Amino acid sequence: MRLLRQFFRIIQINIVLVRHGLEEVIFAIHLFRPVRFLLLLLPWHWFRRVDISHGVRIRRTLEDLGPIFVKFGQALSTRRDLLSDDIANELTKLQDRVPPFPGGQARQIVEKAFGCDVSEIFSKFDETPLASASIAQVHAATLHDGSDVVVKVLRPDVRKHIKRDLEVLHLIADLAHRYWADGPRLRPREIVDDYEQTVMDELDLLREAANASQLRRNFKDCSDLYVPKVYWDHCRLNVMVMERIHGIGVNDVKTLAENNVNMKKLSERGVNIFFTQVFKHNFFHADMHPGNIFVSYETPEDPKYLGVDFGIMGTLSIEDQRYLAENLLAFFNQDYRRVAELHLESGWVPANTRIDHFESAVRTVCEPIFQNPISEISFGNLLLRLFQTARRFQMEVQPQLVLLQKTLLNIEGLGRQLDPDLDLWKTAKPFLDRWMSEQVGAHALVKGMRKHLPKALEQAPELPSLIHGYLVRAEQAPKQQNEMLKLEVQRLERQYKQQRKMSILTTLLAISAAAAIAYYF
Length: 521
Fold this sequence. Notes:
It is built from 21 helices and eleven strands. The protein has helices at about 1-20, 25, 45, 55-65, 65-75, 85-90, 105-115, 160-180, 185, 190-200, 205-220, 255-260, 265-280, 320-330, 335-345, 355-370, 380-390, 400-420, 425-440, 440-460, 465-520; strands at about 120-125, 130, 135-145, 150-155, 225, 240-245, 245-250, 285, 295, 305, 315. α13 (about 265-280) packs antiparallel against α18 (about 400-420) and α13 (about 265-280) runs parallel beside α19 (about 425-440). The two termini are about 50 Å apart.
């Protein structure tokens, strides 16, 4: 049944591909390569409009294939280290908007999740949705204590539909890996695996509620960002209730101007929020597109951001933070040798990479960028060019850094839309310098000793026995190695005997077959 379902879904996908002039994708499969000449016989192939780019056709195909493919395209748009710029730019235009499902159905889902009538939970529940997307939709409601809230409800049967399309995506990724010339380099299986992890996490609204609570706690004493309160008593796996906020969409520049919002301060605060999340909290909102960010109506001269939708969050290891901070500092000091050394030290490019070659490649990319004033240089594009250059040296880009680069591009775009004169370097450099001083030098040494001293003192009484145990194991190691070597030799001898028997048997079968052929012919 599963194979039959996949078969019909693939037929549907092929029809959509042909309709948008992407039948070369079908004929790139190994099975159909011998009949590629049929492309020339297809009537619509003769009259195809040549003014529609490849990227546009891919975007339209994903839109026709449905919400899960749209979300996959959005995720793929962040992999600019793998895609050409025209395709990546088109994929960023994909909108995760689908028709809402009936409000009565949303009410039933809420009642089933809580096991009671919706009137027992809310004094008012608006069945007309405020917003609708491929995973969930949002309804306004009021609690019995008078609190205005929003209720996020997963779409009915969304897990079933997602799993169905994920099965097909995995099948397509396997085919691409086997039969596409660029398959091994572009790693389609890993891309689909990463996407599956992301989209399955979004199906757990308790996880999103936990993300929101953590982010709210991080910015509790900060006036730059406000995160709505989560009502945990009213949260379930497929239902989440949060405080309702009212604000202006961050990309609605006209309304912001009419409300006399200080654009310069607003743009600087956006950058400040991003670097605070990355280098202070190490927990950042990884889906900060304009639809998820609002600006408070209150105190327009001292504007505050309002955040929503916390399904995708990112974190960095200490090594990732160091990579980012040191690379950005080295870039803006135009120390390309240090950039190359950092990549080798991190192990993200092969150890046999010639450092002078890598340094030269980085210089070739960066020098044209630095012809512009530093205030006009894009951090996000700088990371993008670095990833694209490192790809030539077999660097595997880490998923968390891709999320970071996507978020940084969004923040930059919004910041410069609000204030074209925004100087990101001026805002970011204090964060980078402060983080480096905390990680390197006397301050870092004291911090490390303070962190590890209690554990060291706790383990001190056990140190003599640990040393004794290590010496005993070191003495016994040669004996164990000798035993393992003997077992391996015995295994190889058995294998050799079996292979010899098989060789004799194969030879006898071949002689018998030859004799039979000679007898009959």
